[in-house]
Amino acid sequence: MKFTTDFVAxxxxxxxxxxxxxxxxxxxxxxxxxxxxxxxxxxxxxxxxEPTYQVNNLVNVMRADEINEANQFSQKEALSNAAATHxxxxxxxxxxxxxxx
Length: 101
Known about the structure:
The protein has helices at residues 5-14, 21-42, 75-79; strands at 85-86, 89-90. It has 101 residues and is mostly helical. The radius of gyration is 26 Å and the shape is flat.
């Protein structure tokens, strides 16, 4: 697949990004370079090679999910320092704007 500046402009519009013509050219070339590298990797013979998900043998350290009742708050205690509450919930200012149109 060859990335064109038209394709880059379309993706930028869908992502709501503003880019100029020079950036379109640079991004189209970068996308092409990335695909070329991926095509090279796809040509590597991996027959008989076990998939590797991580290479340094680290293991996730997990702990049991235990309830410590000494560290729990009642609802009243949790809401006691809130600036505003309503019917047992925290009230906060809207953090996401949206267009009603």
